[in-house]
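User: Show me an example of a complex going from sequences to structure tokens.

Assistant: Sure. Here are the input components:
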Amino acid sequence: MAAEPRGFDVIIVGAGSVGSPAALSLAEAGLKVLVVDAFASPGQGANKAAIGGVRATHSDAAKIRLCLKSLEVFSTWKERYGDDVEWHQGGYCFVAYRDKDEATLKGLLKVQKAHGLDIRWLGAEELLKTVPDLRPDGLIGGTFSPGDGSVSSMLATHASYRQAKRLGAQFRFEERVVQVLAEGGRVRGVRTDKGTYLAPVVINAAGPQAREVARMAGTDVPVAPDSHEAGVTEPVARFLGPMVVDIRPAEGSANYYFYQHRTGQIIFCITPSPAIVGIDRRETSEFLPMISRRMLGIMPKLKNIKVRRTWRGLYPMTPDGSPLVGRCRELEGFILAAGMCGQGLMLGPGLGGLLRRLVTDRLEPEDKQTLDLLSPYRAFAGVERLK
Amino acid sequence: MNHRIESHPILPVEPRKSIEFSWQGRKIAALEGEVISSALFADGVRVFGHHHKDGSPQGLFCANGQCSQCMVIADGLPVKSCMVQVRPGMRVEPVDGIPTLPPVRGIRGQRGVRELEAECLIIGGGPAGLSAAVELGKAGVRTLLVDDKSRLGGKLVLQTHKFFGSMEDCHAGTRGIDIAKILEAEARKHSCVELWLDTAALGVFSDGLVGVLKGGQEYVLVRPQTLLVASGAREKSLAFPGNTLPGVYGAGAFQTLVNRDLVRCSEKLFIVGGGNVGLIAGYHALQAGIPVAGLVEALPECGGYKVHEDKLRRFGVPIYTSHTVRSANGKERLESVTIARVGKDWKPLPGTERTFACDTLLVAVGLDPVDEFYHKAVEFGMAAWAAGDAGEIAEASAAMFSGRIRGLEIARALHRPVGEVPEHWARTEALLKSKPGKLGQERHPPAREGVWPVFHCRQEIPCNPCISVCRQHLIDVGPNILGTPRFKGGACTGCARCVAICPGLAITLVDYRKSKDEPTVTLAYEFSKGRINPGDKVTVLDTEGARLGDVEVAQVLPVGQGQPGLLVRVKAPTEFAVRIAGIQVQGPKESEPTKAYAPRVEDDAIICRCERVTAREIRELIRAGSRDINEIKAVTRAGMGACGSKTCNSLIKTLFRQQGVRLEDVTDNVERPLFMEAPLGAFCGCEEDSNGR
């Protein structure tokens, strides 16, 4: 069935962590939005692999700003929209068992505070009051940012999708974009394996597939997915407040982190080192032995909690660990919102607002700085310190 | 209160050591080696906790380690009560709401994870897995077989009835419990076959390793050259209001309680599902002395073997075809069941409801293969096979055969000189999987003289023990074992061996030799000995359970050869002697409907037991256009619970079909390990300080 070409104001490629809240934000501005996704329902790509952490605790102004906005959106979602996205404000705790990590974490406090982040350094004793089950031996201290929290990635994205639909946004699932249509240096729409859709603006929010979609627009973006593995346990009564992040490297892994979700389940994730580049999402036997060793090393209480499920998710990485957001210089009307480096969920709502202002030409002065920092054309000199 | 079976017509009741544990602080007795759920049932406890989401009472459902509904807190930790054995002094508490993670006193060390290699790993030690292990053992293949239970045999250990099939190929005429022992002994003969009990397979990984939890404690990664998935089946659930009330559970769970653990778990039960599992469960209930108020089957005919159905009818159990369960009623536990006739759309017809008082409703609506390990292994390109129910749901006799075939195929794949798989094996496997066939006419002896076997077996099923035991070779079932038996004529000696062996209890012997006017009829009788004595008046029934009259018992004999079961000889009038097929064991009073008020608590069916997701919630999503089970999961949590969508997935698919959606248009749930929950500490070989556990 060949669909008639239809006109929209904006077409978003990808109904995931970024595409869904962007669709909502654009629909709220009264725009006619179409979202195209290859999966059968929203958030079935990298989104549902996200463990749910939402933090503004980053090391650069752009992400701090966007995530502060996301925190505001998630924490007020229920009042604003009525859906329960399992928001829980437990904070984030980056722990230090080595002088080196103490120095790194303390070094970042200044810039973090300068951007309005509520974050402080807690010595070992004080930290143990916040996270009583941490192994005390060798604990130096850690940062605590009480404003951070967590949501269900699946519920959050689905809520955006539902609210966007309510405002008239249209979603096409199980449709793969095969061509970005252009004419005279301007984007005209997209062609999928099922139909053709026209719009003067196309946003590439295709996550791990962003490079593929960008190539269809005649441009290349340095987005290469690698994979992280995660797991979830049975629910237990709350005993753990914040997300615990241990940035020490160990054999086979860089950092790892875990928190207790609103449902009482512990959700955990590890960053393999060296990175496993590619789109392979099949589960490996190495993950559980690796992460259980590390988690029990700092929290023996977790010994008896039962692991329920594990999975592998993709982190669409960029050379410097920061997203690529902004207008494409090669094709007018083509906008990038890609390379979230595994942080699409926490950046999503903040980014949604930014994309709305970008599309409607209502950028605020702060936005311009954010877009400069996230420019796809930047030099990629720096490296994000808190990946 | 003691709810134990003190004597059983088939099963030996051996004395076992009693141990003491506590439930909610109250001391109760268990038998050594018994799982917690059975010990609780034996004490009359049916409610194991209350769900954190809605406070609904929770109890046993599968008794098979699959569903997680029977969770209790044992010595501080949530466990599946059907899988964990009682230890002396164990403190067991209900799971009321979300459990608290106990403190850990400190960790002594982390052993790491053992990795080992095997030429073949078999998941599951039931009829298929054991049969394969025997073949692999003969071929000298280094085989590791893991099974999550503490006893080998899988569901054979629940089967007190004699098996169908052919005697040469699959031990037909022998009881399942005895076949389990035979297969285990054969497998143990081979030193290259290692058997790990209490070892659940947790997952298959993309690097070709299989994670197992040995003895419930030690995580071991096995790297098999070949993998045989013989993990059997799990029972399907059914959606009706009240379907998760304690007292509503699987027929397999019932057989586990009654036949494996000898717990008299019910005072009266009702059954939904007229397949072999439901029909046999009804028979097992009667053998255990538990009355059966009735059985409903939604189709116009029962799907199980006619001999099983007839047997149940003859014992006095009404079978309601074209009926379904309207609701299971009760507050904290099942008090009654309301059934109704089904209309054209399979929905209960208003005005046709009838309510029966009972404390137990057995759900026997079919089985789903436990095939997630196989799917993953295939996805990961491993050399994998499936045997038994994990491959295709069929009778255990077929499972044994498919196990043998897969075993030989694997040995061949490992370049063992075992030769080709004999062609007739494949034919036999196919034959044993045959669905019940045509219904024929019952044939009666042409003359009122001599002695004759009468076959009340009218349906084509794969079964032949009667022809195998007849020393005079007077019985014929035709070219293959599917045919119905026929007496060829000739000099029947009246030895009654065919009567004794028939798995369907469908052969009688009519003997006119002493009296032409009052012949004797010999019937097989598998109820307790004290229940029937010479001189008793008993009600006899025809093949389908219609009452023929009351007759006098002449003799009660053991079947001989140390086998359990009896032969009962009755004196019968000539006019209906040949039609006698059974002796009534349950009077009509047991199956009368009740007029009492039926307290209903639930008004909607639960689809996902673990997360308490109702049919309505899922139906609304389907109506709103959802065609992705992953989306239903994301929004409702259906499938996110402890069991990992094992019970809800097929119910969700049924809801799609009921809404007129073709399953080809529905994206299925993505399966991810672990397929069984396991403690985080196991994955690094974590050892707690000696002060701790």
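The lines above are the inputs; the final block is the predicted structure for all two components together. Chain B touches chain A through 51 residues (CB under 8 Å).
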